[in-house]
Structures are given as structure tokens and as C-alpha cells.
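Re-running the complex after MR caught last week's input typo. The corrected sequence lines follow. Everything else is unchanged.
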Amino acid sequence: MSVEFCGLELEHPVINGSGTFDAIAARRAFGDELLERFPFAAFVSKTVTLEPRQGNPPPRLWELAGGLINSIGLPNKGLAGYLRHDLPQLAELPVPLIVNVMGFRRDEVARLVEAFSERAEVSALELNVSCPNVETGLVMGADPAEVARLLDRVRPLTDKALIVKLTPNATDVPAVARAAEEAGADAVSLINTLRGMALDPETGRPWLGGTTGGVSGPAVRAIALAQVHAVAQAVEIPIVGMGGVQRGADALDLMRAGANLVAVGTESFRDPAAGLRIAHELVDLLANRAV
Amino acid sequence: MTRITAPFGRRAAAVTVRETHGAYVVIRCRDTAGPLPRAGQFYMLRSAERWGGGEGERPFLPRAFSVLRARPRPSGCELHFLIEDVGPGTKRLCELGPGEELLLVGPLGNGFAPPREGRTPLLVGGGVGIAPLAIWQDELAASAAALLGFRDAPHAAGAVLLSDPTVATDDGSVGHNGLVTDLLEEELDVSVEELEVYACGPPAMLEAVRVMCGERGIPAQLALESGMACGFGACFGCVVPTVDGYVRLCLDGPVLEADVLQTAAVAGAGH
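Corrected-run output:
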């Protein structure tokens, strides 16, 4: 079953969440079988920033009941390194490429959007707004006015689809989604991880090198469902729903709540081919529902 | 050295044998779809049934294990894993017996490289970290000397998995009373051969090996451990600090040359 999303023709409605699958690394681990059985209908790459980032000091992971907390810190090669090393390899994937970008000020996001706007290999852009704007101190995605100002700055710079990745760590997520829509976003995606923390059982101090991290996995599934449902009441633009999807039935729930596409994240850590399985299960469920 | 890649996705492998060696359990399973792994490569393992619901409602993620031994079979291979019950994941894996199934992804990572020209391999292992040294000793020929350290006699029972090892225990109940790095230091000082050290064990042991070999200009390949969610480069959780910045242990390791590491005492290893 093919689906249309922001002008892209996708083979099925299952993609990956940004930062939960590294297609270049996976090709090293699994060889070209990865390309023959690529698990997602579009590939969303890990967040790219203007400058290279090492990421947070380890430990970076903590296992929870039904999920994990990660504190990775957006390590990446920076725009120049991404264009030189990553983009040519990601262009070999058999599915459309969506590049996720983040900046610490609006001008940084603008430079990233402009750079990728020129690249034919890139089908769409996703804006990671889960970071503080160093100019205002506000988390861009937590405040409707901040998101509107960001879109006002970057929307004129590209004809490519702009997807705003919403943070769940906001007072009024539907208001942020509405602001994104009004300022010209083509779609929204949610949920990003929820802020969480773990203590070292021996020392009582924060376990994660970054002190706090993001909670993901089935533990957040009910929250994702509620937020997707609320956002779907607030906007007309398409929604990429994610959060704890492990089975086709979970994906179907998100679609019933209003998602047009569903993204798989943490479940890929447990099974690299989870996206394929979930897509098959979802397509079967949708076919049965249609009968 | 070309990488041995894993089939894409996770697959079931039937447990054929469960044996205990003191504090350790060895699980053998039948992998009908995977290639023969290289020594030092690892697999992500979980039980097919009842993975979760242990202490703290864990485990959730699969667990990384270096392969202890691998034997070719008419289709696929037989894989052996060495497991110690130290948490909810390993506890569940230790319960598995014939008739039950593992779900595995692998072989993953790089594995050991052969010794440099003219160098004699010396294997140094601590605790459950002896696992990759057993398969490496199989490949190198059993003549490769092995120095193994354990906490106490129940753990030292694992020494039978290698050929003709010299053993140290923290409590002196078996072999040398002290650390395996005492044995290593002595060997490095008296050996007339040019050595190359292969080591796997707890972070403090690996750090001592790194420093000791670095001081003497002896090459050392260290098989490290780090908290790992996926095993194939997706989660970015398992980084270790090298002279070139952080590298993902699952992808660029788990075997790293000691001289590229800033430290072998990886924060959070073993959680």
C-alpha cells in the first residue's frame, strides 16, 4: 500500500525516528542485505548541526521498565562533514531521505535549511526544535511564538517540505503545532523523548553523563497516543506519530489517533529489522479494517 | 581485514546444551542462518520467551556477549556463550536450557587481528571476559599462553574453558594470590620473546593492561565492554574515548588497540 506524504510517494506508512537508526553504520554491520530489505519507507537521518559535536560523556544509557533513557548529546560531523561523508552514502538508500537539522539560534537553522535546500538527494527537512535558543534561553519547541519566529525565518528559504519535530516537554503541544502550521510547516512529527533521569544506585548521583536524558520505548506509548490525538484536533497538516511503537497494532493506534505516518525508534534497538515487521503487521491490519 | 557481516535482523537459535562451570553458565545454540564469527566478535542476545518481568521489570534490551566458541556445522554454526548471572538479563539467559530459544543478532563488531609479524600472542583475561580469548586461542593454536584472573574458586572453575592457563584469584583460593596483572607484569619482564597482548576483562584490569603495555611499548588489543542498546551503531550509547574522540564500541570495536584509547576504564560498563 503506497501512501502520499508531503508530496513523497512512500511504499508504506512506517519510517524511523531521527537518531534511532544509522543507515551507514547498519550497512557496515549487515552489508548490502540492508538495502535489499530496507526497513523504512523513508529514512530520517540523525540530527545535523552546523558545527561538529562529540556528544555527551558516557554513560549514555539507562535501561528502564519498558524502555530506556538516553543522553547521547547529538554527536554528528557537522554540516560540512555530513555533506562530504554522510550524504553520498545516504543517497544510495532505496528510499527518500529526510534530513533532521538543529541550530542553537535561528540563523544556524537558516544556514542548514539553505544548504540542504539545494541538494537533490534530500526529499524533505525535519526541524529538531527540542533545544534551547541561546539568544532567548527558551526551548524553541516549547513556545508557540518561538516556533513561529523560526518558521518565519526558514520557510522562505526552501521549497522542500518542512516537518517540525515537536517536543513533548511543553505545556501546550497542540498550540505549538498550530503555530508551526500557521507559519508554513508542511507536517509535524511527535513525540520526541520525554526528559527523565536515573541515579547511580551506588553513589546516588546522576547516572547519565549528561545528568538527564530522554525516555523512550513502550513506557511512553500512552503519552504519545494522547499527544498525537490532541495535535490531530489542532492542525490540518499531516502528522508523523511515534513513541513506543513495537507492533503493527501500536502503529494502527497512532493512525487512529490522527497520524498519517508512524515512526519506529527504540524497537529498532531490539530488532534491527523491526520496521519491516511492523510495516507488514500494520498493512495487514489496515487491509483487514478496510474489508 | 574484511568485516564478517551479520544477516539483517534478529533470528531464533535453539539452545542445545547448557553446562555450568562454577559461577558461570555456558549456553550452546544452533545458529542455522549466520556465518562463522571471527574471534572477538559479539552477538546481541535475548531469550525468545519471558524477556522482561525480572528485577525492576527488566530486561528490556538485548545483551551483548562475545562469542566463547564457534563450530562450523553443515548449515550455519554452533555458538557457545559464557554467561554470569549479574542482573536481570543475564539471570534470564542463565536459566535457558535445551528446548528453549535465543533471539540473536550477529556476528557484530570487528574481532581480533592476528599478531604483528614476529610477535607471540599472550592472552590475558579477567572473569567473564575470558570468553573471546577461548575462541581466539582455538584459532591461534592452543600453544598461545593464557593468564586468567578470577574473584574466587567458583569463578576460577571457568579456567577449564581455555587450554593450559595460568590462574590468579583475588582470594588466593586457586593459583596466584592476587591479580592477573601481577602475572602479566612478571611475564612482560621475563619474556625473551616479542609479545602482543590480547586482553578482555573488567575495566580496571584492562586499564592496568593498557598502562603496563604502553610503558613497555608492547602492542595490546583490548576487547572492551560498554553499556549498549543495539549493537549495530544505531543508539550511540556505547562510546569510548580515543585519541580521535569518541568511537562506538559496537562498530569500531569491541577490540581496540590499547594505544588509541584515552582510558580503558569505560564509564558505565557492566550496567
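None of the earlier attempt is carried over here. The longest strand of chain A covers residues 122-128. Residues 274-290 of chain A form the longest helix (17 residues).
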